[in-house]
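WARN retry 2 of 3 for item q-0093 after timeout on previous attempt; input resubmitted unchanged.
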Amino acid sequence: MTLKDAIKSVVNGFHTGDLFDTHTVINELLKNPDYHMAYLKEFSENTTVSLYHGLISRLIGTEDSVRSTEKKVKSHTIYGDISNNELWEKIN
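OK item q-0093 returned
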């Protein structure tokens, strides 16, 4: 499973009209053993967690069943910090 496949699977678990942020998807990737391996395999030692999570956000944005609300929401990072995050809507 690729990271893109794992993201698609997480997103497909949402219902039409659901709002979610990138950290929600990241948390799902981290807690599911199948997705977690995809997350780890594609993480490069030449990047930072912040940049990698930005890549995940961009990959979410490529899903046909998702659109950006063009709003930001504050949510916790994996380190417990609060940051602005893309707010997505499941559209189908």
